[in-house]
Design goal:
- 2 copies of one chain form a homodimer.
- The first copy, chain A, is α/β, with parallel strands linked by helices.
- The first copy, chain A, has one domain: Rossmann fold.
- The first copy, chain A, is 26% helix and 37% strand.
- In chain A, α4 links the parallel β7 and β8.
- In chain A, α2 crosses α3.
Chain lengths: 178, 178
């Protein structure tokens, strides 16, 4: 099969959710089984040798790829959610948004001490959410074996710098200007 | 491998999200790769012969299993979300809750005329959300080839009756009393 370009399947939506933002719509990649499977395969290939025990993903788009990655790596799947959505005892992490802060949570019993955890989110922008997710995993005693994204926004956001020290994989780089 | 009982991996959380509700927590099934993979395999096996073009799932827990099911069926994946979260032109369906109504949306270009679509959600209760999701698929010209759940609450809720005529699969039945 000829190598496909994943970026061709990502739709740019101008002025969404607010004016001035060029939103990267990944749903157009997901609806086509060829780039969807290719994205998952590339991530699985990169982390296969690390013996991943759990894949933890951030809701909601993170779950679309994360569940399949966990399945293929023979790993358990951990749900990281916004505050108040998980029913059991949680670890919490607060992180900064452009205006104000937000909180993500993970069940305290979702990860055991010393487990290798692959984090997944669909998009790396400032890195704030992923960094908070990494702290959640470490609070539970897990080891962050890597952080994977489909899309990385490069340029002025410097998300990769915030995640220095982790094994980062992104499949598609899209430059942004501010 | 000895046959595992999926129900043993589902945690009952009393009085969540409100007093009197016995919440069925599926995250304890997801964190263990054995019941997680077994759930996905059972659903894939049931619908494999139907030549599924797309798997459509309802956020957020639906995505955890839905992405893996789509991967294994060589199908595209369609995101059904709460109102206002998808960036492109949407079909909308309103459905009733215990108090008031809610709206789910799906991109208008996510499904092509005549495609076979498998719907997935983690839990069947009253069937209201799944019914609205089926209408969304049909509005786009798709054929609902089946509706799959991990958990079905049986007894007083009659969710299965609301979905009469569809090929329904649920892996675990849990009786509820009201």
């Amino acid at each position: 099969m000829a190598r496909i370009k994943l970026i061709d399947f990502i739709r740019n939506v101008p002025d969404w959710p607010v004016e001035g933002i060029q939103f990267k719509d990944i749903t157009t990649l997901c609806v086509n089984s060829i780039p969807f499977k290719e994205s998952i395969n590339q991530i699985v290939k990169h982390y296969k040798k690390k013996k991943i025990d759990k894949v933890a993903a951030i809701e909601a788009r993170g779950y679309v790829f994360g569940g399949a990655i966990a399945y293929l790596l023979d790993a358990g799947f951990v749900l990281i959610r916004k505050k108040g959505k998980l029913p059991w005892k949680c670890h919490q992490e607060e992180y900064e948004l452009e205006y104000g802060t937000d909180i993500i949570e993970m069940h305290q019993d979702a990860i055991d001490e010393g487990e290798n955890v692959l984090l997944f989110d669909d998009l790396l922008a400032t890195g704030g959410t992923a960094k908070a997710a990494a702290k959640l995993v470490e609070k539970a005693g897990g080891i962050v074996a890597g952080i994977a994204f489909v899309i990385e926004l490069t340029g002025s956001l410097h998300g990769r710098d915030l995640l220095k020290g982790y094994d980062i994989l992104s499949l598609v780089e899209i430059p942004v200007e501010e």
